[in-house]
């Protein structure tokens, strides 16, 4: 169980960092928020993968397609986060 949590955090960090590198512009978020975006993106990517291909994690947790899905999900989550963050900024 502890290994699953640690691997989830590491994959979340990698997916969140790659998503931040691929999205242009400045993101004022720290490493903890990068991990959160990556972990949430992993769930979003896994859900979208299940909807599109009707496959689940029966073959194991660590697969190249799962990492790619995590990155795509993290990009979606980061774009939503940045879009919602723009609404709360005060423009003068």
Commentary on this structure:
The chain contains 3 helices and no strands. The chain has 92 residues and is mainly alpha-helical. The model has no long low-confidence stretch (mean pLDDT 82).
Order of helices and strands: HHH
Question: What is the share of helical residues?
Answer: over 70%
Oligomer: single chain
Number of strands: 0
Strand content: under 5%
Q: Main sheet, how many strands, which sense, barrel?
A: none
Number of helices: 3
User: What would you call the shape?
Assistant: globular
Mean pLDDT equals: 82
Distance between the termini: 49 Å
Rg over alpha carbons = 14 Å
Low-confidence stretches: none
Given helix and strand content, the structural type is: mainly alpha
């Amino acid at each position: 169980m502890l290994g699953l949590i640690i691997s989830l955090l590491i994959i979340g960090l990698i997916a969140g960092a790659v998503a931040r590198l691929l999205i242009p512009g400045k993101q004022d978020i720290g490493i903890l928020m990068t991990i959160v975006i990556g972990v949430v993106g992993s769930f979003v990517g896994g859900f979208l993968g299940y909807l599109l291909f009707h496959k689940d994690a029966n073959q194991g947790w660590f697969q190249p397609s799962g990492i790619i899905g995590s990155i795509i999900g993290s990009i979606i989550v980061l774009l939503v986060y940045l879009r919602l963050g723009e609404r709360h900024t005060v423009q003068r």
